[in-house]
Design brief:
By secondary structure, the protein is an alpha/beta fold. It folds into 2 domains: 238 residues, 3-Layer(aba) Sandwich (Rossmann fold); 209 residues, Glycogen Phosphorylase B (Rossmann fold), CATH 3.40.50. It contains 16 helices and 16 strands. Strands 3-4-2-1-5-6-7-10-9-8 form a 10-stranded mixed sheet, with helices on both faces. A 6-stranded parallel sheet has the order 13-12-11-14-15-16, sandwiched between helices. Helix 2 packs across helix 3 and helix 10 crosses helix 14. The protein is globular and about 70 Å long.
Length: 459
Amino acid sequence: MGRLVVVSNRVSVATDRKAQAGGLAVALQDALQQKGGVWFGWSGKVATRPDPEPVIRQDRKVTYATIDLSRKHYAEYYNGFANRALWPLFHYRLDLTAFSKQNYSSYLEVNKLFVGHLLPLLKPDDLIWVHDYHLIPLGQELRQAGIDRPMGFFLHTPFPAMEILTALPSHRAIVQALCAYDLVGFHTENDLRAFLDYIVHEAEGGIMGNHLIRAFGRTLRVEIFPIGIDTEDFEKLGARSAKTKKAALLHNLPSDRTWLIGVDRLDYSKGLVERLRAFERFLERYPDYHGKVTLVQIAPLSRTEVPEYMDIQHELAAEIGQLNGRFADFDWVPINYLNRSFKRDQLVEFYRGSRIGLITPLRDGMNLVAKEYVAAQDSDDPGVLVLSRFAGAARELPEALIVNPFDLDGVADAIRRAMTMPLEERKERWKAMIETLRVNTLTRWRESFLEALGQAPYE
């Protein structure tokens, strides 16, 4: 097997593991350093006149190659088609999905642009791994350029049901582009089932067994690869955080004071407004907890150029103001809203000190915060995870209190149950979840995908 070539919308060039914002970057960098290879993608910069050549940076065995986007491509490819069409559609929000032929055209243009810059960097025996919805057409563009080596694609978002996907005018072209890869990976059985449903009923393809399908004249493998976290690292961080000043402050709260934690990017898929309303319902139904429980909601801004994201920011602020104004007292505020990012070790302090992890997205590919919360807990006195059934993590963590985020009464009752759950039950649930996380790690996700890709072609 030759080098690994990773292609993603954005490229992380930080080489210090502690500086990495997310575990995925660490996993990919580790694989690249082991095998040698290339990480190619957008630099994150927007330029009036982008440099015609990629910027190349070498770090030991890894070549980092990045390009800038023009303002037009940033507006139409990134903010337009990727984040105003595919993202809401893949998260079942047809009401927020904006279709535009011009944006779709730019989406294809940028994928072709990526291929034009990537081709000179490739070697004959490279293994190519493409990531996420921004770059679905890239494999097809590579095939048309004559690349016949193994190529894999992993979708980090949910894959929508056929009835949802077919609302996209370019749905057939998108799925045909996915079928240009040798291996397509999904988070959950639900995502795979939705994809197979489309292949059989819309693409008139066939399921061959042994994870193989036939569609659009190609045979490819489709499989579930649930992404994990660096569980051991989070367990160590959790143990270390127990000795910090913030942890001491949290643990030394009066015995009748409890913290709940929610950590989410500010996005309509995360169910933040519904979560606040469920917490409000909890305070309405269980007034004995007034003054005794606070929800700490961390929600850093994202995609501020997209109108729907500004709307959710304003709606969330209004909900928090209304709720705090209704229930707060001079020495207690029910919602502590932190609209900024925190480093990983700081988040672990919040996880460790919170009795309940309230993770209730309306739709999520996986949701690694749920896994991080579990891994950071004290084994002798663990908190309780309240988890949406629509998060991919719910498939792996059934021992959490699984809730429907649209059922405000149900979420309120789950919070009450978590608040009163006996220690032995908390420990039993946590033990089952942490054992799963210790097996389904980020490293296992990466290695299982690359092992399957290394067996291509399949026909």
